[in-house]
Amino acid sequence: MIGRDGPDRQQKVDDALTKNYDRLSPMQRKVIDRLLSDTRYAAVVSAPELAQTVGVSESTVTRATQVLGFAGYPDFQAHIRRQFFSPLSERIETGVMSLGDTPAAAAIQGLLEDAESVRRTAEDLSPELLTDVVERLVAARRVFVFGSRGSYGLAQMLSIGLRLLLTDSRLLSDEAGLLADQLTTLTEGDLLVAISFRRVDRITVGAARHASKAGAEVIAISDVVHSPIARLADRTLTARLGPLRLMPSYASGASLVNALIIATTLRTLDDAADRLKTAEELWEEFAIHVADE
């Protein structure tokens, strides 16, 4: 059984970054960004090794973690290990122990938590930022969308909507290791929407980094503005995630993607009208949907 302070301790890294990341100096940010770009590396690297890799003094490593609110580098590293590498059984127990006494009660409480995350996401969303992102999507020569693991469904959902609204929108996939091949033509004038939450996967960071180097714009959809993909992006839309259970809930992420599709629909309705009409005709021709009886 996990101690009473388990869940609070596990949230401390995220909370510390949210509250104090902007207080870091440029050199201190290099330290923290390197650690957050690979949490497995962060869990084992020593302070002297990290300092040498980043090109700073060991005292800068210590001060960076202290600015975030930790006693020092060992304390920060211990929280990294605890938050990201606790056994799955502990994560499940920690996540569900406060939900309810029965499976049904726990499930309903989970739904209510999702609704609260969606509400907070809507309250946080800047209309100006959303409008700017939509304009960038419309202005792009080609739009590429990528999400891996749990975020793949959100990427697929966004791609389906954008394909009907934009001249050229494509869903990227790492199936059979072909993502690198699909990125070869990415260049200035293109735009990549990269989607990833919680423990950001390395392949999404790699795709965003390549897009940025190639001169393409990058729009990130993530849960925090200091996530690894957000730091590579030109603009970031954030969705509030609830407590971590067996796996993250993507309800607020799906709602944010839907909001982006709605905004883009209204912006492109006149230009996309013929495309939408053709899509309807093709759906009927290919009998995509079950006919009403």
Describe what this molecule looks like in 3D.
The chain is α/β, with parallel strands linked by helices. It has two domains: 6-84, Winged helix-like DNA-binding domain superfamily/Winged helix DNA-binding domain (Arc Repressor Mutant, subunit A, Orthogonal Bundle); 118-285, Rossmann fold. 58% of the residues lie in helices and 9% in strands. Strands 2-1-3-4-5 form a five-stranded parallel β-sheet, with helices on both faces. The longest helix has 35 residues, at 251-285.
Q: Which topology of the largest domain does CATH recognise?
A: Rossmann fold
Number of separate structural domains: 2
Q: Which percent range fits the helix content?
A: 55-70%
Q: What is the CATH superfamily of the largest domain? A: Glucose-6-phosphate isomerase like protein, domain 1
